[in-house]
Amino acid sequence: PQHVVLYPLVAKSLRNIAAGKDPLEGQRHCCSMAQLHEHYSLGYPDLDELQKYPQPLIFDIEVLKVEAPGSYQQDPWAMTDEEKLQAVPLIHKEGNELYREGKVQEAAAKYYDAIACLKNLQMKEQPGSPDWIELDQKITPLLLNYCQCKLQCEEYYEVLDHCSSILNKYEDNVKAYFKRGKAHAAVWNVAEAQADFAKVLALDPSLRPVVSKELRSLEARLREKDAEDKIRFKGIFSQ
């Protein structure tokens, strides 16, 4: 076997690819030897150990599957700019189909990939320029779809973060207020939820039935929580 001194960095990139990330995520533009000294940890104990105590390596390669020509879809990091633009509508459509089928986690992953394509392109534009804004307006509906998935997965703080980011740029985005209101309600930020739902009604009064339903649900949960707290505290003080 041949000793491969830089294999830990290669392995980290391969693991990033397997996780759907950019293989160079976290790496700076410097030579490989500098990378070894730059990072105290690669994020994987076994790779840190191999980096600290290099040893000969033997690789076993197993074929997992063979894909038909034309069926393989590149990861976003491997696409050209033109391929990214062409892929986004297709990935968006796949996400919508998965969501309709109830495959929420898989749909979120698709929306994430589409967002990653557009974010990569946006990083090459001057913030606030027409091209940057055009890309941002394509990112926003994808991000809202992603937030809808995260709401269903009960990952509320991520929804709060993303919706607030959208509203910092687009103050009249009704969907962002509504989703953020639902997330606030879920984590018991009552005043914030009520404020967001009030903003929804101010921007689109036709949504009153939907907002009223959310507010009634929040009020019912609050009453239930108050009743539970009274029982809990009564038990504590009666001891």
From TrEMBL:
Cited Gene3D superfamilies: 3.10.50.40, Tetratricopeptide repeat domain
Compartment(s): Cytoplasm
Carries keyword Repeat? yes
Matching entries from InterPro entries are given as: AIP/AIPL1/TTC9, PPIase_AIP, PPIase_dom_sf, TPR-like_helical_dom_sf, TPR_rpt
Keywords attached to this Swiss-Prot or TrEMBL record, sorted alphabetically, are:
Cytoplasm, Phosphoprotein, Repeat, TPR repeat
Main localization, broad class = cytoplasm
One protein family per Pfam? PPIase_AIP
Under PROSITE patterns, the record lists: TPR
Question: What GO CC annotations are associated with the protein?
Answer: cytoplasm
Domain AIP/AIPL N-terminal FKBP-type PPIase, residue spans:
1-63
**Placement of TPR repeats on the sequence:** 174-207
Record GO terms (molecular function): peptidyl-prolyl cis-trans isomerase activity
The answer to whether keyword Repeat applies is yes
- Note the PANTHER family from the entry: AH RECEPTOR-INTERACTING PROTEIN, ARYL HYDROCARBON RECEPTOR INTERACTING PROTEIN RELATED
Subunit relationships? Interacts with RET in the pituitary gland; this interaction prevents the formation of the AIP-survivin complex.
Function of the molecule: May play a positive role in AHR-mediated (aromatic hydrocarbon receptor) signaling, possibly by influencing its receptivity for ligand and/or its nuclear targeting.
Protein name from the UniProt record: AH receptor-interacting protein
Give the organism the record lists: Aegotheles bennettii
Q: Recite the lineage of the species.
A: Eukaryota, Metazoa, Chordata, Craniata, Vertebrata
